[in-house]
Amino acid sequence: EDQVTQSPEALRLQEGESSSLNCSYTVSGLRGLFWYRQDPGKGPEFLFTLYSAGEEKEKERLKATLTKKESFLHITAPKPEDSATYLCAVQAGGTYKYIFGTGTRLKVLA
Amino acid sequence: EAEVAQSPRYKITEKSQAVAFWCDPISGHATLYWYRQILGQGPELLVQFQDESVVDDSQLPKDRFSAERLKGVDSTLKIQPAELGDSAMYLCASSLRGGGAQGDTQYFGPGTRLTVL
Fold it and tell me: Is the peptide bond before B110 cis (omega within 30 degrees of 0)?
């Protein structure tokens, strides 16, 4: 069964304290892995698409990496405005469906 | 920058009433998705359209939910009658290609927060 698991469920960081969020997946034939940021009461905002193991993408303080079993979202020197829920989704090869994780709620304290 | 539009942003209704949500995808996007998101969970697909055709409605509660995309552009999701358990965020997303195209990125609208009393 296709599955996506994100950890931790919640994370509190001090401003400037770098950390990583994890997205583990089990799918038959990965066609894409997507990271989104979601602020309370709003729709998910697209961050990155990763296609194959070894791929990396960066945007400001965020860097996403991909292996054959998991993806990491690294946050370098976070600021309070980085506080949000970060969602991971995978596009499964067998069904072409998109499966979302439950997200990591990040709080960055000033 | 092109965006997915949704309306209304908020809807409060009583159980057994009918509600409708509207979505206008990014221009040129062939595929449109309706998701339901319960607080603290990830979005769950309700229905997927490729142009005007439904390609996946396996998780749509068809006894009370209906969706249409008549001209292959904007779409309406309806609930009749609404139940207490329908309270959630309803999200619309669109993607350029669909059809299982590799890495076909979905872009989401702002969502409609539904509260059923």
Answer: no
B9 secondary structure, DSSP code: S
Residue with tokens 């309370």: A40
CB neighbourhood size of A14 (10 A): 9
**Residue A15 to residue A17: CA distance in whole angstroms:** 6
> Which of B41, B56, B89 is opposite residue A102, by nearest beta carbon?
B41
Max Cα–Cα distance, chain B, nearest Å = 42
Q: Determine the Cα–Cα distance for residues B46 and B67; give it in Å rounded to an integer.
A: 9
Contacts of A97 (CB under 8 A, 6+ apart): A2, A91, B45, B56
Tell me if the bond preceding A8 is cis, omega within 30° of 0.
yes
Torsion of CA B50, A95, B95, B81, to 10 degrees: 60
Q: In what order do the strands lie in the sheet with B19-24?
A: B5-7, B19-24, B75-79, B65-68
Q: Determine, for residues A44 and B113 on separate chains, whether the beta-carbon distance falls below 8 Å.
A: no
Task: Give pLDDT < 70 ranges for chain B.
Answer: none
pLDDT, one tens digit for every residue, chain A (110 residues): 889 999 999 999 999 999 999 999 998 888 899 999 999 999 999 999 998 999 999 999 999 999 999 999 999 999 999 999 999 999 988 778 899 999 999 999 99
A to B CB pairs, distance under 8 Å: 60
Please answer yes or no on whether B91 and A44 come within 8 Å at the CB atom.
yes
CB contact under 8 A, B4 and A43: yes
Chain B nearest-CA distance from A14, in A, is 23
